[in-house]
């Protein structure tokens, strides 16, 4: 997966688009002015950056996702586990859980996930 690290502003902007897409780009400019205090040029500069990263597209003045929120964050999570834990999900979970106990609900959810993975194979 490509490295799609986003700044805080880029992440806020991406969330704004994902929550409204498809959105006409002039409307997006208005939304960004109201919600983020951005000028038109700032909105289009940020949009171009995220389009160049392959996350969004702006075709015929309509902005839409080329990559959904779940796909984006899922890829980031997998990349992190690969880089930091040599791809070992058990090592990641051990570090993530630390010394805290999992709740019965969390254990149940993890068991369902594992069972589902087994069924898919």
Topology:
Blueprint: H1 8-18, E1 23-24, H2 25-36, H3 40-52, E2 56-59, E3 62-65, H4 69-85, H5 89-97, H6 104-120
Query: Strand percentage, roughly?
Result: 5-15%
Structural class: mainly alpha
Strand order of the largest sheet: 1-3-2
Largest sheet: 3 strands, antiparallel
Helix and strand run:
HEHHEEHHH
Describe what you observe in this structure.
The protein is mostly helical and 121 residues long. It is built from 6 helices and 3 strands. It has helices at residues 8-18, 25-36, 40-52, 69-85, 89-97, 104-120; strands at residues 23-24, 56-59, 62-65. It has a 3-stranded antiparallel β-sheet. A hairpin with a 2-residue loop joins strand 2 (56-59) and strand 3. The model has no long low-confidence stretch (mean pLDDT 91).
What's the short story on this structure?
By secondary structure, the chain is mainly α.
Task: Label this structure with key terms.
6 helices, three-stranded antiparallel β-sheet, mainly alpha, 121 residues, elongated
């Amino acid at each position: 997966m490509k490295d799609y690290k986003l700044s805080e502003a880029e992440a806020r902007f991406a969330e704004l688009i994902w929550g409204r897409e498809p959105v006409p780009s002039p409307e997006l400019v208005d939304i960004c002015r109201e919600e983020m205090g951005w000028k038109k040029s700032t909105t289009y500069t940020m949009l171009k950056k995220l389009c160049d990263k392959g996350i969004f597209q702006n075709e015929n003045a309509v902005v839409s996702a080329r990559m959904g929120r779940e796909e984006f964050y899922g890829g980031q999570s997998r990349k992190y586990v690969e880089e930091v834990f040599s791809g070992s999900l058990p090592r990641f979970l051990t570090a993530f859980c630390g010394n805290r106990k999992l709740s019965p609900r969390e254990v149940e959810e993890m068991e369902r996930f594992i069972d589902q993975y087994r069924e898919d194979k």
